[in-house]
């Protein structure tokens, strides 16, 4: 009797697919990121900042509603209800959880409280090229310092960090002040709580200046802008609804010398004074070529209350069509004196900077003139199954001296497959020991890097079998020393010993 069981099983088989806005990362990317994070950490600690880790999940009300993409479900965050019906959310940045931590432990922490944090954050936003729903940030913040000296120091630290990563002369830290912007918005009639939403829309329009240009900002300040303006297609972003006069005042801020005619409100003058002080501090410390005042810097998050800053890379790269493209911003931050105060009912001064790790890693990859391969482990092949313990002992000797190594754990029947495996792992060499070598107390070491070079020059199979290029024998007692010689010859790192 026929059965439809196999077809039912096939129909229920899940499809292997990656969610939109997320990415898998391989050993090459992870290795480069790990090295970059270590460099950043050293600079942060040089400035006296200490490590802190907060969880991925926070109570939704603790995070607050500060994201730019508030027209999407959950207002830009991924949220769910706990079994006690309280709403929880994946963190959308590392600053809001810091504010919760400081408020919760306020009386125990030294103030100013200087911390750094690295980790994944999540945005429930529309994904696109280079825009992910999960990405990594590396933040440093000073909480409890009311003067703009703390803002100036953060900017100096960011400059030192980018230089430590090999970007000297290829970046600028741009600084502006939300108080200056607020003073301008007051001047065009957008003061007061009733205009809070429109003010934020205007600020986000200015924040897109580098991406959409002056005409794009004009559209966003007025009726709105299509994703593809010429064809009027794609997503439509609703504008701030400013009239022509208001729009011209705002646009004048984005031009050199613009904004000088604004009414001298107390808010505006306070912002200008803070910018002048920051400029004097960074210039006095010798950072004038790396840090500058720029009126186009806004930052999209609502919680900023004073100076805001952005790290912009100034070199160009080529897109998929070979056209030059400016890489742009790789991090930013600012002063947020009200974020910790949400929990305490009083203002708590705070300032910080966040590096977009994935974007910065991508930028650094463009600067590598010669891509150095990420080498895999030394592979000990298995010639005799009954000698598995002995092969594991050879691997243990290599690992003890800080050499990445592994024994082949697949089906050892086919020796060719073991060599193919080592090639796919980009192994620098393999260790071979059959019964004859074991009886003689020797091993064979095959240098796969030199072997690949030699193979390119050999066209005859008989010659290949006869020469066995880049393969040599040594005493088993010399195994570690000879493998190290191969690794050193090719510049393969090793030496992180166990124990």
Helix content: 25-40%
Detail the poorly predicted runs.
Answer: 68-73
- Which architecture of the largest domain per CATH? 2-Layer Sandwich
Main β sheet profile? 8 strands, mixed
Alpha carbon gap, first and last residue: 64 Å
Question: Tell me, what's the shape?
Answer: elongated
What's the total count of β strands?
A: 18
Please identify the structural class as seen in this structure: alpha+beta
Could you say how many structural domains there are in total?
2
> How much beta, percentage-wise?
15-25%
CATH superfamily of the largest domain: Bira Bifunctional Protein, Domain 2
The chain-level mean pLDDT equals: 87
Total helical elements: 18
Q: Widest sheet: strand order?
A: 1-5-6-13-12-11-7-10
Rg, please?
Answer: 29 Å
Q: For the record, what CATH class of the largest domain applies? A: Alpha Beta
Q: In the CATH scheme, what's the topology name of the largest domain?
A: BirA Bifunctional Protein, domain 2
């Amino acid at each position: 009797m026929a059965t439809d069981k196999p077809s039912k099983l096939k129909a229920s088989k899940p499809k292997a697919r990656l969610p939109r806005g997320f990415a898998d990362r391989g050993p090459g990317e992870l290795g480069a990121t790990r090295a970059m994070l270590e460099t950043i950490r050293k600079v942060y600690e040089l400035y006296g900042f200490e490590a802190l880790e907060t969880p991925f999940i926070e109570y939704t009300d603790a995070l607050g509603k500060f994201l730019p993409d508030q027209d999407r479900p959950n207002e830009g965050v991924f949220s769910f209800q706990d079994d006690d019906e309280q709403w929880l959310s994946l963190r959308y940045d590392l600053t809001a959880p810091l504010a919760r931590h400081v408020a919760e432990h306020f009386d125990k922490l030294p103030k100013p409280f200087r911390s750094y944090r690295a980790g994944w954050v999540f945005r429930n936003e529309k994904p696109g090229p280079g825009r992910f729903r999960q990405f990594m940030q590396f933040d440093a913040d000073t909480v409890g310092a009311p003067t703009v000296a703390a803002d100036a120091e953060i900017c100096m630290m960011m400059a030192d960090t980018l230089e430590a990563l090999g970007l000297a002369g290829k970046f600028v830290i741009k600084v502006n002040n939300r108080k200056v912007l607020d003073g301008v918005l007051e001047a065009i009639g957008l003061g007061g709580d009733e205009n809070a939403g429109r003010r934020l829309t205007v600020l986000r329009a200015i924040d897109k200046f580098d991406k959409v240009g002056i005409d794009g900002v004009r559209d966003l300040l007025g009726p709105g802008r299509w994703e593809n303006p010429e064809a009027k297609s794609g997503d439509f972003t609703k504008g701030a609804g400013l009239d022509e006069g208001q729009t011209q005042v705002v646009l004048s801020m984005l031009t050199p010398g613009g904004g000088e005619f604004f009414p001298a409100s107390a808010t505006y003058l306070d912002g200008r004074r803070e910018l002048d002080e920051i400029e004097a501090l960074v210039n006095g410390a010798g950072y004038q070529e790396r840090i500058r005042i720029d009126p186009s810097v806004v930052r999209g998050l609502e919680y900023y209350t004073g100076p805001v800053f952005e790290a912009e890379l100034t070199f160009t790269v080529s897109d998929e069509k070979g056209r030059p493209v400016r890489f742009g911003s790789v991090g930013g931050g600012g002063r947020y004196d009200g974020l910790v105060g949400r929990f305490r009912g009083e203002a708590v001064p705070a300032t910080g900077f966040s590096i977009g790790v994935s974007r910065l890693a991508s930028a650094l990859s463009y600067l590598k003139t010669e891509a150095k391969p990420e080498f895999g482990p030394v592979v000990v092949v298995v010639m005799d199954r009954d000698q598995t313990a002995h092969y594991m002992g050879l691997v243990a000797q290599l690992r003890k001296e800080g050499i990445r190594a592994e024994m082949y754990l697949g089906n050892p029947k086919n020796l060719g497959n073991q060599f193919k495996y080592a090639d796919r792992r980009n192994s620098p060499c393999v260790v071979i020991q059959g019964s004859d070598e074991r009886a003689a107390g020797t091993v064979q070491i095959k240098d796969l890097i030199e072997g690949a070079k030699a193979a390119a020059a050999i066209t005859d199979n008989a010659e290949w079998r006869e020469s066995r290029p880049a393969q040599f024998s040594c005493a088993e007692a010399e195994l570690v020393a000879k493998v190290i010689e191969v690794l050193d010859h090719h510049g393969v790192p090793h030496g992180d010993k166990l124990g």
